[in-house]
Amino acid sequence: MVKSRKTPDRASVPDAWVAELLGAAFERIREALPPAEWSGLRLSQLRVLSSVPEDGLSVTELADRVRMTKQAAGQFVDALVDLGLLAVQPRAGDRRVRWVRRTAEGDALVGRLSDRFAALEASWAQAVGERRYATFRRVLGELGRTVPDGADPGPGQPSVSP
Questions:
Q1: Mean of the per-residue pLDDT values for the chain?
Q2: Which stretches in the chain have pLDDT values below 70?
Q3: Where is the HTH marR-type domain (predicted)?
Q4: Which domains, ranges and CATH numbers included, belong to the chain?
């Protein structure tokens, strides 16, 4: 008989899988930032929205930045345009390129969430100690880097160096 690893609080078990630990951390994020404050967006949509710099970028550059296909990035962009958070226009020098920028509403949402994430991270740093939290954040950045080496991480996105 195969035992299930699922228990009510697997994150507190010494041999918990890293996915369970990260899942517990995400649950803490969801508790601290209710979906109503996200305008009903998924975390993946917020990641795309927050990855658009102030001066904009092409859909292809956005896809590279968030490490997804150009087609998937285009679908995210279209959905965020429909919600009024992004705007798309042809690039001045090459009208074939879709140039993506955040709208004022998109900027406001990213600003609010950046403030909330900063407060959450400050509380985590206080709970475990500044030094341990800085190490945790640096390691997470190394393991899950979403910005290619040398690329600008975008507003509100910390750069991670090895």
A1: 83
A2: 1-13, 146-162
A3: 1-145
A4: 14-143 (1.10.10.10)
